[in-house]
Amino acid sequence: MGAASVRNAPTGLDASERRVLNPRPFRVFRKSYSVTEAKAGAVVLLGLVSLAAWVVWRGAHPDPGLFADPAATAAGSVAIADVEGRRAPDGPSVAGAPRAELSGTVPSGGAATAVDRGALPASLSAPGWKERTVSRFDAENLYVKINGRADFFLSRGFRSLTFVTLEGPSGTTVDVELYDLGSAENALGAFAAEKPPETKASSSGGTSWYVARNALFLARGESYARAIGSDESPAVLAQLEVLRKAFEGAIAAGEKPWTVALFADALGLPPDRLQYTAENAFSFGFARNVTSATLDDGETELFVLPAGDEAKAKALSAKFGEGFLSYGEKVEAAGASWVKDRYLSTFSRSVAAETMVVGVRGAPDLAKGAEALAKLEKAVLALSPDVAKKAAAGPPAAAKPTGGGYE
Amino acid sequence: MNENRRRFLKQLGTVAGISLGAGYVSLAPSGWPLSLSDPDGEGGKPREKGLRLPENGFAVDPSNVLPLLGVARGADLDAMLKAAVDAIGGIRRFIRTGDVVLVKPNVAFERSAPLGATSNPDVVAALVRLCREAGAAEVRVADNPIESPAACFARSGVQRAAIDAGSEVYLPTPSDFRLLETPGATHIARWPFFWRPFAGVTKVIGVAPVKDHNLCRASMTTKNWYGLLGGRRNQFHQDIHGIIADLALMLRPTFVVLDGSRVLWRSGPTGGSLADVREGRTLVASTDSLAADAFGWDDLLERKGEPLPAYFAKAAERGLGNPDWKLTNVREIQVG
Amino acid sequence: MSAAPSPGPAHAPGKGLALPSWKPNLAPNPDGSPWWARAFRITNIRIASQAFFFGLFVFLLWVTWLSRLKGYPASLFLEMDPLVGFATALSTHTVYRHLWWGLFLLVPTLLLGRVFCNWACPYGTLHQVTGWLFNIRSNKSRIEKNRYRPLFQTKYYLLGVLLVMAAFGSLQIGLLDPICLLVRTFTVTIIPAVDWGLASLAAQGLTSASSLLFKPATPEPRVFAGAWFVGALILGLVGANLFIPRFFCRVLCPLGAFLGVLSRWALFRIDRDVTKCTDCDLCLKGCEGASDPQGALRKSECFVCFNCIDDCPEDALTFRLNPLPSIAQLVKGSVKDGTATLGGLPVISKNLAVEVKAPDVPRRRWLFTAVAGVVAFPFLRFSKDVNKRGFHHKAIRPPGSVAEPEFLERCIKCDQCINVCPTNVLQPAKLAVAGLEGLWTPVMDFSVGFCQLNCTLCSEVCPTGAIQKTSVEKKLGLGAYAEAGPVRLGTAFFDRGRCLPWAMETPCVVCEEVCPTTPKAIGTYDEVFTRWDGKTVTLNKPYMRPELCIGCGICQKECPVVDDAAVYVTAIGESRSDDRTLLLSGKKTT
Predict the structure, then answer these.
(1) Between 3.30.1490.150, 2.40.170.10, 3.40.50.11440, 3.20.20.70, what CATH number should domain B69-334 receive?
(2) CB environment B131-163: b (16+ within 10 A), e (fewer)
(3) Does B14 sit within 8 Å of C265, measured CB to CB?
(4) pTM higher than 0.80, yes or no?
(5) Which member of C4, C71, C543 has the closest CB to residue A58?
(6) Could you give the ipTM of this predicted complex?
(7) Could you read off the pLDDT of C201-248 as tens digits, one per residue?
């Protein structure tokens, strides 16, 4: 360095030492330079360039085996015959829940001899159509057939499924599923739950049904049937019509559920509007066995549930009142206390009618709501007592709780 | 200057030598002598050369007239052994003067002799003496036990008996094992083998007790050769009958002695209680392991009528013996 | 030529920042030689070469990635490293694949000396640049720091021990070899750090930074076991340059020691003309190798950096072919009296010694290191972790690896395989898993990643064949390899107590879904089940098919019980070893 060092008394370091980085000044002391050196340097640089060129060349010529696609070289793979229903070698590992014996056979494309047809009518086929093999499924293996939808039926008292495919002309098919759901309430409940809200179902003589394009949906007695065709051709639609008649003829209509008698006959509502919720109706934990129907205005909902005895009914209806209160404020009208929903401005109320609890929910107009409630109350009180008692017992083959299973 | 030129030339020579040497060693094709080139890694993989046992094992010529099975009943083990061996042709049919004989007992577990899990030491001693009387130059006793070798040989009494009778006991050490090739074997085509006692051996005699076995139903003379193997024997149980058939293929002995003096009739192969053992009072000598084992199954384990364990069929398929001992030439002798 | 340092940016009032003006000086040199003799003098060429090789080194590391590798010789530096080739030849008695490229460095070393150390070695460049940047010393202090010290013998002892151990079959040169060390350090610390910086820049908006990422398109940042130690080591070693310049190169480097031993036959050396040398010691100012150019040049320490030639004001130093090794007997007269002459010219320097050929290590010390190496081998080799009884169940090696004793003969712990692994499953082994001999060797950790089915990149970049070059066909057991079967890394096991369907009535079947083999190595027992809360679920309870499992570990990686997976892979059943097979029917495939 040519500069003289400046001593900074407090720190004791000179200017050069206080620098942070040290790019040494490019100073060399040699007196002479050599042309030979430069020539040798040029040779070295040439060598470096050729090394770089080689690296680049190598980069452009990869080893073909390195990124080979083994699918091109794959030999056939061994198929594993996975036997359905295999258990672990150490036996059933499930604790609790006794399982029913496997009753049905596992479906296969092949022969299944003499299978119980269950409630399936004996003759299903339209002229020109023929049946393929019938198979049956119970709660154990329902998922095998309909996998993701199994829970929907399992939670509605599912007992068995009978399935058959009908073959028609020009490759058309209709897949027929007949579900035994154990009770009319469950069958109607499943029917109503699968029906799109805007679709109107026909209802006569104990059958509720509708045809949606290439499919027939039907509920009668304890059975719920679905028949899905391969297309909307006339042949398929004709077959669906034949199926409907066959179901109506062969399936027992059973006793009309009291809820149908109540809402359809007494109150004049179409039976397909009935909704049955076994548990947790309106998100109230105490609300079980609730049947409800929406009025023509699309908003007012009438509901009824059997409580068992008068005291329980009073208690339950009070609970409903409390439940509604969590959404709004109390409003008095004509001596009755209603709850006005603070968000939707609709009115709800629940009363006990002997051993039943009835109520109105979501009525946009208080007067109309009161009127509907009065009508409902009158209809319920008109029910015979043993109907009420039977209703309290709940539908036979108690439906399993609803709620999303893990899919 | 000459000095310096010489030094320079020496230096140049060293440089050239090292360069060329390194170049040759790295680049010469791998077949050439002293070439270390290994472009695909194959040359670097160790591939131990396997050894093989003699073509026909250690068997002597078969005979059409002599009995295949010699059964001796009684209580005097020495006499019984002599009688049984005499029944199949006498010891001199098998052992010549100068032979180096390997006697292979079953000393797999650290059990004392009355518990029946190991070869009866008195039988082993009798066999050793018999061989020495026939003129054997050297008699060796060897086994590769499952439990600690020194403890097994000591507690079973075989060590003492073998040494007193005049043989040398070979206990396994890590360097005693070599890879053995058994062509045609399913599982043990190449397997570590207790080789040291076999060096120079001309005759091999197996002497095995009669044992029940939890996995393969019975452990007798054919399974006895298990004790000559090393390596991961704990995999054999995945196909025990296939293994026993392989063992029969691996080693064909001069003859075998089925030691029925005690029978471990249940809780085998380790046993552990005197209640598991009964007196058998029988010694069998045979040139056919399968026949001897079948006899042991029927007569000594008293399972006549039950189907034979699967290894019999597997080994018989390969032509390694005849399980139908009744159809063969059997000679039974009552001794005392 | 002006010696003034370039002035800093001048602040001309009202004019803002004025940059210093620099015009290239194209005038001929004072001694009459053309300007390009100065511009292209040998030290400048050397700097260019160092920059080139460092850039190439980083480039090759950058290109060691699935999407970029193509045909590039990603392990070029490792394969050119003559110590790697020599030591591996000692331990395996073979020269694997590309290791003959070491000849390209071996021959120039035999001719010129340790040119590699200052012209090509990227680690040496790193040390030199660090020292140059952060070392602020006066010239006098520099000169003293660059004198030779006996401490520099250490690297020869290390070399001796390591080579003797290699001869017995334990290859440990990778612990200290500079290329292995630098590749390992880059892989484990520098590349993740750079990527972290680039990713932050890209997140701030500088999106072009993401194309520079060393490991692009990885969903998670890459993590490596024991990275803290490697990082501390590099900081320590590089930091040591502030105390002794080129500390690692002079004191520890076994490659430098190897090249130093070979340099004793070098035909060229720095020659000091005693008729010009004034003993000013200025040549030591820039001496990188501390090779005493001012006296008897130590050929085994000289890095051929040519700084001494640049610094000698008397032009007394030249790089020549076979100068006279000893001139003492040619000098007439007496040095003490000042009457000495050499070839007619007066001798100015007081020191007549001009060359020391061999490394300054007494014979008995060589013997001692050999003995140390001989005993070190069994001391290390009989630890349980590297033996067939008691091997660690987590010591799962990459696909294509040779059996463990051979692996320890070959692995130089360069961690190139860990570098290229696309899923980050390969990790440097810690002491607990593989012992000291296996420190920093690659093992699979399936909680971090899994072995991608069709990938054999680790076998491609391994320079020594610890992981043999394996085609995808061979790895999967297809085509010609169908009978031998696939390469198995281990076997998966279920811990039913932690598995959701087995122990917790909760559906899950991720492991079976992701199992890549055909047919799958995981099967399920399926049952419909009513849970404790009344819900109905379908439980697919998994079980292993060990004949099909290749130990790739994706089941463990994807198992939702991430803290301690309910399905885990252990080394048993690996196909590279006879003694680690699980099934009697399992075959060795290496």
Answers:
(1) 3.40.50.11440
(2) bbebebebbbbbbbbbeebeebbebbbbbebbe
(3) yes
(4) no
(5) C71
(6) 0.87
(7) 888 888 788 888 999 888 888 999 999 999 999 999 999 998 999 999
